Amino acid sequence: MTIPELAPRRTFGGVVAVWVVAAVAAVVIGVFSPPEWRSAWVTVALGGCLVLAFAIQLAYGRSHRFTQRMAASILGALVTMGLIGFGFGLATLVPA
Fold this sequence. Notes:
transmembrane; membrane; transmembrane helix; elongated
C-alpha cells in the first residue's frame, strides 16, 4: 500500500511542455525542410514527442491517470503539429 501524497505536483505542465516542443518542431520543420519532405519529418517529430511525453510523465513518478496524461500530451501534440502544418500547406498554395 502506498502513502498518498500530501501536496501532489501538478502534472499539467508536463502535458503543455510536450505541446510547446511540438509547436517548435513543426515551425522548424516548416521553415527548413522542402515541401515534399515535410510530412515525413512531421511524423519523425511526432514520434519524438511521444518519447518525450513518456519521459516527462515517468519522471513525475505518479501512476494515477498516467494514460490520460499521455493521451492528452500526444493528442495535443498531434493537433498542434497538424494546425501548424495546415498553415504551411496553405502558404505553399499562395504564389510568392
